[in-house]
Each structure stands twice: as structure tokens, then as C-alpha cells.
Amino acid sequence: MLTISIDHSETADYIYQQIYQHVKAAVLKRSLMPHTKVPSKRELAETLKVSVNSVNSAYQQLLSEGYLYAVERKGFFVEEIDTFYHEEAPSLLLPDDLREREPDKSGWISFSHMSVDTAHFPLKSWFRCEQKAAARSFHTLGELVHPQGLYEVRETISRLISLTRGVTCRPEQIVLGAGTQMLMQLLTELLPKDALYAMENPGYMRMYRLLQNLGKKTATVSLDEKGMSMAEIEKQRPCVLITTPSHQFPSGVIMPASRRIQLLNWAAEQDGRFIIEDDYDSEFKYDADTIPALQSLDRFQNVIYMGTFSKSLFPGLRISYMVLPPGLLRAFKERTYDLHTCSTLGQLALKEFIDSGEYQKHIKKMKQHYKNMRERLISALEETFGERINVKGANAGLHFVIEFDCPRSEKEILARADAEQLDLFAMSRFRLKAGGESNKPQLILGFARLKEKEIQEGVTRLYRAVFGA
């Protein structure tokens, strides 16, 4: 028996959708038994006082989904469908602990190190580049591109990093990917399975967890005034070093040439040793010229260079890259990867943006803007806190470390900062392993998302969080 009630109100579903839903429900509940003939299209249309086309659309959808089958010159019949194990469907509501809630950040001031200032991004120029790229290479958008990324894009990136970072490579050595972590996961498949990876401590916690989740052996190396401690490297005896020499994350230490040469000599001493250079925000150096990449000094092809456009442009672009030494490039090609993780249009737009000169123009503008914001923030901090703070690692990048001479712990300060509606992080977040902690609280202060009018208010709130009653 098929009973259907049609809702003719303006807010109701289309009539054919209502018929479809009623018949489908009747089949699943076995109100209509298998192989039962359903009313003809004309008969049901007359009963419901609707058009034959509406009934036909519903029946055709039910037919295509397998709820009905048709017998020539006889009509439509109910398909044989197994019943569900449970008559009552379980709750489809997501458990409360898995639900995501967008936090209300109105009134908050961000000292987050993870953000960039998109207010100054030349969006119109980017859209023009996107349109030019699409018009010029529209046929490419309909094809699967090379697993390493479009050659012409890699060619542009190789020229860019040669000019700006001194990186020596061919376009063939570049692999594009949707983020550094994705590329790192790919890289671990090319390196020996039993390799021991050593990371800076404090360091990039997300990368550390990624390696552990992949089942890789990990070790941590503490920092001295020059970066990764050579004594600890010799003690740990890793195969792979992961380092951020241009602006150590999160301490801000810039690795001098002497330590860079020591690392390169370490890698050259024994076959199978590699250095992964994460050059995540190298574009922003304020008090001197940009320091060339570690890879530019490498004479034995032991450095794997990684870069990203997340800091220089915006994180949502999701285009990062790595430069593989020839040996690892051969291993990559032998595995016949077929990855296509970066938007083809995004790649083409990026190429146009760089080739047109807009990229370097934007970097020059943002470098001056970030330098001004950094100086104004440090000035406000020194004026408010006096000699009770010590600023570290402020010569490059989009964040620096501030150490406080106060009895409160980092945990207490963060709790009070949260009450003050301040978005910031403490050094403890980036300690990969316990040990070597400072006896003074240290915070990571990013300034990329700060607005000039927020600086003094943000510093005042921070003072209350650290020293207030």
C-alpha cells in the first residue's frame, strides 16, 4: 500500500523529491514488499493530482538508485533489498567532544606566530595574475600535471630561490606540495626506513609529532648560541638533521657561518647523512642583508632544502616545495609517485605573480611593514616593562621571544592572558622533550597580525597578565 501526502507550500521540496522520498522510505521499511508492482506513472499522478513528469522524475531516480526495477510493458516493481540489521537507526548526531565550535575572537588581540598580515596583500594584482594564467594556460587546467608540479612553475621557483637564497638547483629537483608536513611525509619514504631524525629542541612540535606518528626514530638536540649543539649531534649520532638555520623556530637564533660549515662537514663525513633545511620565513631579515641558505654552501649534495609561500604570501595558498639532491630525486622517480596536491591554477597564478615582479614588490613592502611593527612593539614593551624583560631573536622572521623577570610560571601567565583576551603561546609549547628549561617564563610574540592601534593595548594587557594583581 502506497500512501503519499504532497506538501504544496512554498517552502516544501519539489514534488518529484517528495514522491521519491515517500517511495524510498516505503521500500526500506518494507511497506512495499520486494517485487510488488507500484502504481503506474499516470495512475499515481491522477491520485496525487500532480503532473506525470513529476512522477516520472521520481521513478527514474528510484530506478537509477536501485530501489525499483522496470519490466518492459508491465511497469515498475520494488527491488529486492536487504533490511538493515537494526530497525531503529542509531543517532546521527556527532558526539559533543567531536563537535567543532568557532570561537568568538571579537575583542581579542593576536600575538600568534602562525599568522600573516593579509590586509596588505595585493589581492587585485593576484586576481589579475590568476586571470592571465588561466587565459594563457587554460588547456592545462583540464589535465593531470606532473607529480612534482608544473615544470614552468618549478623553473620560476628555481630562479627565485637562486636569486634570493643562493640555492643551487635545477627545476627537475623541485617537488611542489600542499604544505611542508606533506612534503616531509613524502621525504621520509625516500630516506632509509631506520633513519634516526634529530630535531632542534625547542622546535617545531607538529613536525616532531608527524615523525613519531609515522613510526620514525626521533632524537632532540638542544641549542647553544649558534644553533644546534654539535656536541649533542655527535652524542645522538642521527642520520638526518632537521634545522631552521635562517631563523630558528621558535628561539629566533640565526645560525652563523661557522656552525653551518660544521653541520655540512658532519653530513659529509659519512654516507647516508642528510640535513633538512626548513627555510620557513627567510624572506624577512631586518638589520642586515638576507643570509644565503645553508644549501648554497653545500658541496656534497647532502642538504634537502624546504621552502614555503605560506609566510611570504598567505597560508591558504598551500604551496610549499623541496629541493632534492640527485640521489633522492632518482629514488623519487623510481617510486613513480602520482601525487597532485597543489592546485594547478594556484601554481600558474604563483608563476605569473613572481614573473611579473609583483612577488618581490610585495616582499619589499611587507619587509618594511613588519620591520616597523616589530620596532613599535619592542619599543612599547621596553617602555612598559622596563628592565624586567629580555627580547631575543628579533632580527628576522615574524616573531621573537620575550623573557620575563617574574615569579609566575608560563602556565599562569597564559591563563591570565586568556582572561585578558590575548592570543599567544609560551616556549613550553615547543619543548619536544623535558630538560633545559629556563627558570624565567618565555613567550613567543608574533606581530604579523597586529594592527598598529592594538600595540599599546596589547602590551598593557600583557603587563597585567604577567605582573598584575
Automatic annotation (TrEMBL):
Provide the cofactor list for this protein: pyridoxal 5'-phosphate
Recorded hits in InterPro entries, A to Z, give:
Aminotransferase_I/II_large (IPR004839), HTH_trans_reg/aminotransferase (IPR051446), PyrdxlP-dep_Trfase (IPR015424), PyrdxlP-dep_Trfase_major (IPR015421), Tscrpt_reg_HTH_GntR (IPR000524), WH-like_DNA-bd_sf (IPR036388), WH_DNA-bd_sf (IPR036390)
CDD domains recorded? AAT_like (cd00609), WHTH_GntR (cd07377)
Show the GO MF annotations: DNA binding; DNA-binding transcription factor activity; pyridoxal phosphate binding; transaminase activity
* HTH gntR-type domain boundaries: 13-81
> Which SMART domains has this protein been placed in?
HTH_GNTR
Does the keyword field hold NADP? no
Key words of the record: Aminotransferase, DNA-binding, Pyridoxal phosphate, Transcription, Transcription regulation, Transferase
Family membership: In the C-terminal section; belongs to the class-I pyridoxal-phosphate-dependent aminotransferase family.
**Record protein name field:** Transcriptional regulator (GntR/MocR family) with PLP binding site
